[in-house]
Amino acid sequence: MTVKVQSEDFDVGAELAAMTGGKTGIGGVTLFVGLVRDMAGGESVSAMTLEHYPGMTERQLEAIEAEARERWPLDDARIIHRYGRLEPGDRIVLVATASAHREAAFESCHFLIDWLKTKAPFWKMEATPEGERWVEAKESDDTAAARWTKPA
Amino acid sequence: MKILYFAWLRTKIGVATETVDLPAEVRDVGALVEWLKTRSPKHADALANSTVVKVAVNQEHVPYDYPVGPGDEVALFPPVTGG
Known about the structure:
The complex is a heterodimer.
Chain A: E1 2-6, H1 12-20, E2 28-35, E3 39-40, E4 43-44, E5 47-52, H2 56-71, E6 74-82, E7 84-86, E8 91-99, H3 102-119, E9 122-128, E10 131-134, H4 139-146
Parallel strand pairs in A: 1-6
Antiparallel strand pairs in A: 2-8, 3-4, 5-7, 5-9, 6-8, 9-10
Chain B: E1 2-5, H1 7-13, E2 17-19, H2 29-37, H3 41-46, E3 54-57, E4 60-62, E5 73-77
Parallel strand pairs in B: 1-5
Antiparallel strand pairs in B: 1-2, 3-4, 3-5
């Protein structure tokens, strides 16, 4: 179980290998990789800067991960979230879950991403031709997270 | 008390952190936000719409009726947009 908040990139293959190496009880791994898009709200985006709250970020990610482990039988879970300046095509976030059963891996990965969007203290600022602007939280993210408050 | 601001709250107010002497009558998050508004026009502008100002006390999300005291670390920020 790993939580990392870092400015540098991560290697998806290496993370997958580290999760599964020598563990023959794992039936499936679900991996989600979030990327920086070159368009947002009809405008081109040349860069994105992610700010976070050092200390609280790690605490929140660990709490979210612990919650996932309580809800689903997981062999491993990993969250890596980057901060700082990123460009279109760059990886922002990795969420990976491993379980004996695929549904547990799929559902817990989905849960972690939805909760990251609404609970983890990260904020995105986009650079567009009109200047820099802070990304606003979406109501759809709250709706997506809310479904997990019901018993799984 | 240590106050931290993030994202557009930080850019509007112009500082990332400040240390304040809390008046005795400020005992919860709601009262703290109201009192911070009186510190400068920039504070008043940034904190004008408290429905979009989220608060964490000692690094945990809390509601506006949550108690605060001089030893707490209080962070104010807009809704998060990570992931």
